[in-house]
Amino acid sequence: xxxxxxxxxxxxxxxxxxxxxxxxxxxxxxxxxxxxxxxxxxxxxxxxxxxxxxxxxxxxxxxxxxxxxxxxxxxxxxxxxxxxxxxxxxxxxxxxxxxxxxxxxxxxxxxxxxxxxxxxxxxxxxxxxxxxxxxxxxxxxxxxxxxxxxxxxxxxxxxxxxxxxxxxxxxxxxxxxxxxxxxxxxxxxxxxxxxxxxxxxxxxxxxxxxxxxxxxxxxxxxxxxxxxxxxxxxxxxxx
Length: 239
Known about the structure:
The chain is an alpha+beta fold. It contains six helices and eleven strands.
């Protein structure tokens, strides 16, 4: 079937960070309809637009460089798809870039980077705690879903870095699993801040077909890249 497939990078922040993944999917469905784009649907009695998020976002997390892929039944210029969607986006959702990809390609996330802002009083000895965690050969956490079990998340922790005002968390993502940023915060004694309303940011997602993990920039450099992109954006939303 003739058509196009596009990969879109977007930012989700502000009050929209409280939108669940399922609600975000419904928001994209509404945007596609309102933009009058000829989107391709799934088969079955209840067809849905063929929209794929390579990695869902936990509730309450700000996404500064998220990814969504969508398929159309017709060939359209990427610029037109971008502008028509951007015109329908709600406050807190900003489209950053778009590119056409092969119809048979589906993005697979290999790396996720997070940032957690911290006050000076919670930075004491944090670098030492990070080093101690990285020095461990096994880091087990308890997960309750889909069933209670103990999971070793050490293979998924690539790096931890402490900046002047935040903790940076670098996680490997594989088809069989990954670590969660909230698990890392709990292990470092920072879980209470998240429960008290601290805002976790996912600052970058890397895909296998775009950048091999061995070519990824250092954690702090990745943060600077995201910050530069935000500075260049026109009328960025209040995050």
